[in-house]
Design a protein that fits this description.
By secondary structure, this protein is of the alpha/beta class. Among the domains are: about 200 residues, Nucleotidyltransferase, domain 5; about 90 residues, no CATH class. The strands form five sheets. Strands 5-4-3-6-8-7 form a six-stranded mixed beta sheet, sandwiched between helices. Strands 19-18-9-10-11-20 form a six-stranded mixed beta sheet, sandwiched between helices. Strands 13-12-14 form a three-stranded mixed beta sheet. Helix 9 packs across helix 14. The chain is globular, with a radius of gyration of 22 Å. The protein starts with a strand and ends with a helix.
């Protein structure tokens, strides 16, 4: 199990601990050559190596491959050090947009991070840096711009025009990467202003455009990217979901680190919770937030409009156990106590936290509805929903359906695939045909700019309800 902050990042073969099956297991298996090896893969006499990177807003992942044997040797993940400039891409754009010195500073952070990962991979596997012959990179559009040396300033304002959308190729020395200076570095093509090469990699890895029927691909993060395919037509859009699902903008929210509440259940009036590392609870991360709200909705504590109800406002069967004591008015307004603490502040979910989740899930659901309208289709006709990303691995299906972050279809149609973006990066590393496929995929995707859709506000407001 590959982890960062002691939590699975969805880059390894299935260990039974992830919620849902990872259909990309074979590609990510480190011990054997995958049966899904690209058909143009050829071994040669000399030991050659490559590294595929996935530069996420929160986490950066590097995967070292033996190109002769077609085997992944090791995966290393590190927290993106750009987080000191802001938790989301807009904060980072605002930090550096009009200041060349600040842009150099934020770019150096990611280059230094990649070099740290490279060094750890090479030392751990006794590989000479001169034998790294190829590197591939995916990331959202902002991360891709900063990595490639383009100021992401235009991405913060309508019409969100990127400096580039197609594939970029460099030599390692141009990027200050500490390997053979002449090594080719391939940045997979972005799709649009806020639909990046990470989504290109995900579509590539899942073969989304080749699947029968109508298929929905969702990568849930600060920007909720969505891809919809039907009858060889492919649409993509990005929704400003905000950082709520990553723990930011939540009163006692935090990232998936030790002590974060990651799971909540309410049974017969008793609150049960689990924390990462089984540590003393110090806050709540995205997966725990989704489960908590789902349980509160099921127990009648949150109404359809998202209002947190006090005990006297709840109709029907009275609340059991100590639930009435947990509903109260605190310094931040109405709140529900998840954990009572003796010597420190209680861990709570506030009314404002619920509103933040409504904004985030409303944006994603509205994006899905508007994309379906482009195809004159309805949610019930979706054949398959693919949830990508490490965060998606931890979403409980029932909870996601209850709060409305997932489309209202049968849970059997929903599949979690882990880090599909990283797998797509690896495919391009191993195969020129896959590289060509990636470029073809981007050329065939029609980008839908939600801000210009006349029904967006209407769908957004409707989607905020529970």
């Amino acid at each position: 199990m590959e982890t960062v902050n002691n939590r699975c990042i969805g880059n390894c073969s299935s260990c039974g601990k992830c919620k849902g099956a990872n259909i990309l297991d074979e590609m990510n298996n480190r011990k054997t050559k995958p049966s899904f090896m690209p058909d143009d893969f050829t071994a040669d006499e000399m030991e050659k190596y490559g590294i595929s990177f996935d530069i996420g807003t929160t986490t950066v992942v590097g995967n070292l491959w033996n190109l002769k044997k077609g085997i992944s040797l090791q995966i290393v993940a590190k927290t993106n050090p750009q987080n000191i400039f802001g938790a989301d891409v807009i904060s980072r754009i605002n930090y550096c947009e009009d200041n060349p010195i600040k842009f150099i500073k934020i770019r150096d952070k990611i280059i230094d991070c990649l070099n740290e990962i490279i060094e750890e991979l090479l030392i751990g596997n006794q590989v000479d840096k001169q034998n790294i012959v190829k590197i591939t990179v995916v990331g959202n559009t902002t991360m891709s711009h900063i990595f490639a040396g383009f100021n992401p300033k235009p991405l913060a304002r309508s019409p969100f025009t990127p400096a580039f959308t197609g594939e970029k190729e460099f030599k390692a020395y141009e990027l200050r990467l500490n390997i053979n200076p002449e090594t080719n570095v391939i940045l997979l093509p972005n799709i649009a202003g806020h639909v990046g090469s990470d989504i290109t990699g995900g579509v590539l890895a899942t073969r989304l455009e080749k699947l029968n029927g109508m298929n929905l691909y969702i990568d849930i993060g600060t920007n909720g990217e969505i891809v919809l395919t039907k009858d060889y037509k492919t649409y993509a859009c990005s929704t400003a979901a905000g950082p709520a699902f990553e723990g930011a903008a939540i009163y006692q929210g935090m990232r998936a680190a030790s002590g974060a509440i990651e799971s909540i259940q309410i049974k017969n009036g008793t609150v049960f919770f689990k924390t990462i590392d089984k540590s003393e609870p110090v806050g709540i991360c995205g997966s725990g937030l989704i489960e908590a709200l789902s349980e509160m909705i099921k127990n009648g504590m949150i109404n359809k409009t998202g209002r947190l109800l006090l005990p006297g406002e709840i109709k029907g069967e009275p609340l059991k156990g100590d639930l009435p004591l947990r509903l109260r008015v605190g310094p931040k307004g109405r709140e529900f106590v998840l954990v009572f603490k003796e010597n420190t502040e209680d861990i709570v979910i506030t009314q404002m936290d619920i509103r933040e989740v409504q904004l985030a899930k409303g944006a994603i659901y509205a994006g899905i509805k508007l994309m379906l309208s482009e195809l004159h289709e309805e949610i019930e006709n979706i054949d398959r929903v693919i949830i990508a990303g490490a965060f998606g691995t931890y979403i409980d299906k029932d909870s996601g359906l209850t709060i409305g972050i997932l489309p209202n279809i049968s849970p059997d149609k929903i599949t979690f695939v882990g880090n599909a973006a990283g797998t797509g990066s690896s495919l391009v590393l191993l195969s020129e045909k896959e590289r060509n496929r990636a470029n073809k995929i981007v050329s065939n995707i029609e980008h839908l700019e939600l801000a210009t859709c006349k029904n967006f506000q209407e769908e957004y407001l409707k989607a905020m309800s529970f």
